[in-house]
């Protein structure tokens, strides 16, 4: 039986590689006992701000067996999204997070995972499973760590030894027994560059991020007016923020992704500050039609640009 389990595991990992995923690891589907009190404390301190969905389905978030009946394994995949070059044309240009340059990663990864699940079902037989990409109550960073793919850094992002932290995460939860990988050790050491660099002090202590203070939260999740107390602290970020990742020494190993869908729209590559300030609904619709930037809608993006512009 052990040999069959090992073969199944190798088959899934090889197929994930063929589909273009950079990493694939496996962990046992079980209750996340260690994370339960941490999540409860984080929520009780209101560190999720207006992200009400973070408090929903608390039990499911901690136990994959409540998401897939009879679940035995969590297969975690990582996909690199580090770009060949950044979109901002000059140092004082407006900036958007690298993850939003191209096609929304939810579409890209979910399609790949659905293909992988179908392949597993074809090759192995009747397997019950579901795929997840950051849109369901799954603690993806924890599963990536438990699957041996990386560790959760002091900025709360997953870091891989091979290519840093600019990676997307997705999961397949299966009622199939597989060979689990061991968890990854933490290699942050005494470094606190991400903590020191955060302009809004969102990393309240190493490994703890107050989501309600993060530039990404203010520019994407917050629907109200951006608080005046953070004026002048955005360093020209108008959608998301990469500061804590950009300063991480492990990202010296980052290398350009191999997924054409993540390339920026041709027009975006040459966007000037004036282009951002004069963006119309038609241009917004064309450039960000399949991008995560759509989440803010044009009025949200204009609010962010105006807030940064008047902070200068």
Question: What do you see in this structure?
Answer:
Mean pLDDT is 90; it is low at 47-54. The protein has helices spanning 2-18, 35-44, 58-62, 105-124, 140-146, 193-197, 215-221, 243-246, 273-277, 281-287, 297-309; strands at 23-28, 73-80, 95-96, 129-132, 151-152, 158-159, 167-174, 203-205, 208-209, 237-239. It is of the alpha+beta class and 312 residues long. Helix 1 (2-18) packs antiparallel against helix 4. The strands form 4 sheets. It has a 4-stranded antiparallel beta sheet with strand order 1-2-7-4, sandwiched between helices. A two-stranded parallel sheet has the order 3-10. A two-stranded antiparallel sheet has the order 5-6. Helix content is 32%, strand content 13%. It has 11 helices and 10 strands. The protein folds into 2 domains: 2-85 and 101-174, no CATH class; 193-251 and 265-309, no CATH class. 40% of the residues are buried. The protein is globular. Monomer. Residues 176-208 form the 4Fe-4S ferredoxin-type domain. Its EC number is 1.17.99.6. The active site is at residue 134. [4Fe-4S] cluster 2 binds at residues 198, 214, 241, 244.
């Amino acid at each position: 039986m052990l040999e069959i389990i090992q073969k199944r595991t190798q088959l899934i990992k090889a197929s994930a590689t063929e589909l273009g995923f950079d990493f694939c690891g496996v962990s046992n589907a079980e209750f996340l006992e260690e994370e339960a009190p941490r999540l409860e404390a984080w929520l009780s301190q209101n560190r999720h701000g207006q992200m009400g969905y973070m408090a929903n389905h608390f039990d499911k978030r901690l136990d994959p067996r409540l998401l897939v009946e009879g679940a035995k394994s969590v297969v975690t995949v990582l996909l690199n999204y580090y770009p060949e070059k950044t979109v901002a044309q000059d140092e004082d240009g407006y900036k958007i997070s690298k993850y939003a340059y191209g096609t929304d990663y939810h579409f890209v990864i979910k399609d790949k995972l659905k293909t992988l699940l179908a392949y597993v079902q074809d090759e192995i037989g009747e397997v019950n499973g579901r795929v997840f990409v950051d849109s369901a109550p799954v603690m993806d960073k924890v599963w990536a760590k438990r699957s041996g793919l990386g560790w959760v850094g002091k900025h709360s992002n997953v870091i891989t030894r091979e290519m840093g932290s600019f990676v997307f995460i997705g999961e397949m939860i299966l009622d199939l027994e597989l060979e689990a990988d061991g968890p990854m050790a933490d290699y942050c050491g005494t470094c606190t560059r991400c903590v020191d660099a955060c302009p809004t002090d969102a990393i309240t202590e190493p490994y703890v991020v107050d989501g309600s203070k993060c530039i990404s939260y203010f520019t994407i999740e917050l629907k109200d007016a951006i608080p005046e107390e953070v004026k002048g602290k955005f360093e020209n970020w108008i959608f998301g923020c990469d500061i804590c990742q950009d300063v991480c020494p492990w990202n010296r190993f980052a290398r350009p992704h191999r997924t054409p869908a993540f390339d920026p729209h041709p027009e975006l590559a040459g966007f000037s500050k004036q282009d951002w300030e004069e963006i119309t609904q038609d241009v917004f619709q064309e450039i960000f039609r399949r991008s995560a930037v759509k989440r803010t809608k044009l009025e949200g993006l204009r609010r962010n640009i105006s807030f940064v512009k008047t902070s200068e």
